[in-house]
Design brief:
The structure holds 2 protein chains of 2 kinds. In chain A, strands 1, 2, 3, 4 and 5 form a 5-stranded mixed sheet that branches. Chain A has 2 domains: about 100 residues, Transcription Regulator spoIIAA, CATH 3.30.750.24; about 260 residues, no CATH class. In chain A, strand 2, helix 1 and strand 3 form a beta-alpha-beta unit. By secondary structure, chain A is of the alpha/beta class. The two termini of chain B are about 35 Å apart. Chain B is globular. Chain B folds into 2 domains: about 170 residues, P-loop containing nucleotide triphosphate hydrolases (Rossmann fold, 3-Layer(aba) Sandwich); about 60 residues, no CATH class. In chain B, helix 3 crosses helix 4 and helix 8 packs across helix 9. The longest helix of chain B is centred in the last third of the chain and has 18 residues. Chain B contains 9 helices and 10 strands. Classes of the chains: A alpha/beta, B alpha/beta. The complex binds adenosine-5'-triphosphate (ATP) and magnesium ion.
Chain lengths: ~375, ~260
Amino acid sequence: MSVPETPSTSRYEISENPEGGITLNIHGNMGAANAGQMIDELTALLSDYSPSSLTVDLEKVDYLDDFGTLVLAHLRKLVTNGGNGFYVINSSDKIKELLSILHFDSLDEKMSIEKKRSSGIFIRIGEATLQHISDLKYAISFIGSIILSLVHICLHPRSLRTDDTIRYMQRVGVDGLPIVALISFLMGLIMAFMSSVQLEQFGANIYVASLVSLAMTRELGPIMTAIIVAGRSGSAFAAEIGTMKISEEVDALFTMGFNPVMFLVVPKLVAAAVMVPILTLFSDLFAIMGGLVVGVFMLDLTAGAYMSQTIKTLELFDVFWGVLKGGVFGVLITWIGCFRGFQVRGGAASVGQATTSAVVSSIFLIIMCDSVFSVILRYWG
Amino acid sequence: MGSKAIIRVKDLRAGYGEDIILDHVSFNVYEGEVFVILGGSGCGKSTLLKAIIGLIEPRSGKITIDGDEVSVDDDTTLQKILRKVGVLYQGAALFGSMTIAENVALPIREYTSLPKESIDVLVKMKLGLVNLEGYENYLPSELSGGMKKRAGLARAMALNPKILFFDEPSAGLDPVTSAELDDLILYLNRSLGTTMVIVTHELQSIFAVAQRIIMLDKRAKGIIAEGNPKYLRDHSQNQFVKQFFNRQADEKGVVSRGSQ
Ligand SMILES: Nc1ncnc2c1ncn2[C@@H]1O[C@H](COP(=O)(O)OP(=O)(O)OP(=O)(O)O)[C@@H](O)[C@H]1O
Ligand SMILES: [Mg+2]
């Protein structure tokens, strides 16, 4: 019961019989390693003849598997194109069994796999629209269940999963602090540097401090922080929930009587709502330090003057406003991240899509929400 | 019966991190045989399988497949060995973004020069063997657990490898499909001479297909019995082996499973 070494070539012998048919003697192996080559060689070989029938003698074949069967099917197609006969002779019992199990007699090379038909453009547009509508419905009902869970938490504070919440706080906040600090510091530096080029012409260097602090606390601090959190944590939320979804962990939670939203979303939501504002504060602080560095080393301002100008410019309301925005952005990021995670269907690729769209939609929503905040401030402020 | 040892495992020690799961494990698998690895859950059967095919690096010991030593570091030899084996993983491990047909066609497309239409025919034949014709365009996520197993099997045998490794092929299959799978295993073994290394718990299929078994044990961290399953069932002195084959619980209690 030994398997012949697979990579070996086959030899062929052709003899013509008086009726115009030919007999093909195959020696050696007919397996995966040489099936492609055999098809090419035999096609070339037989193109010199136009036999009335083809008899394939398998007596000297040591090994034949489904790849070999394919070669036989190919040969049959070559001759029977003209309506001629095709015969296999001297096959061993093993080969006979194989050919019958593989339904060699009904095996047709044209039996190719049809791809699922892709439908017309209108149908696809329609389907996409319906898909978006159902997405929207789901998004709204998802908000509903989050709110219900939050109400439940307010009524029964003990049902909040504190350990999870603290772990997510660490992931979102503490672990994100270095990158938020670095980027904000550099932003402060760049802003101070860019504005100083203009302000220096009027000898108004000191207003660099006002510009940096005001722009950062009100607008850029929260936005930058939120974008970083969306990239770090929003994507992680989507991937985590998405993976749990495909490995049926979410179903398991559900059947154990847990509310998946309460279990998976609320801790993340609370963590982000608390940590993003704190990160925003740090962002403001580091941006001001970045501006200070430019002010002191390039604009000949004293640190004291820079700081007192900053304090004079900033009102408590500005800081509060920025922090409030941070909190709202944090909630948005978690909502979108978890929502995309729960939408995952199928396999690994779907998790990738969910992660991407979590980040893209969060950034879009952050910017849109920020403009709403600006409008509110303009008319109510 | 072929007598050449196609897989040799010598004094293998394997584990994860601090834990040693298997120690002093030695056995041979002979060419053309159906070899079954048994043992209680968590005793290291999957670990042994992974060590043999070079997925995890053994702590010590030597494994050779068809004359070549399996070594995680020697990439060219490993590639050569891997061309000769097909693996069905415990969780089927189908690629989720590809249809069943694409999953099966992937190795064929990579390693043969066959034209696309021929590959389609082959894929249909392979899926026919595992009773999955008609599911070519389904994604793995659209199949049931047992169907995934069968599709994974079709992919493992895509290139008719010399050795097939199955990690619990019949888990999740109904008795009829499971019996058909046994037939398929025997048939592949008979007609193509494929060597089979199977991890399974199905007593019936063990008696149906296995020519030789080894039984691993968690406490012994190694082999506690080796030989023909029917013989072991009737003659083994080992308590756990007897329990296993006669499907009895431990007298001491449900939880403590182990050999004496
Ligand atoms: N990736 C891993 N890291 C650490 N330990 C592991 C890992 N995989 C398995 N183990 C440990 O190795 C031991 C053996 O696991 P293995 O998967 O080989 O068991 P098994 O015999 O295949 O069991 P089953 O029949 O349940 O599949 C177990 O105790 C398990 O805890
Ligand atoms: Mg296992």
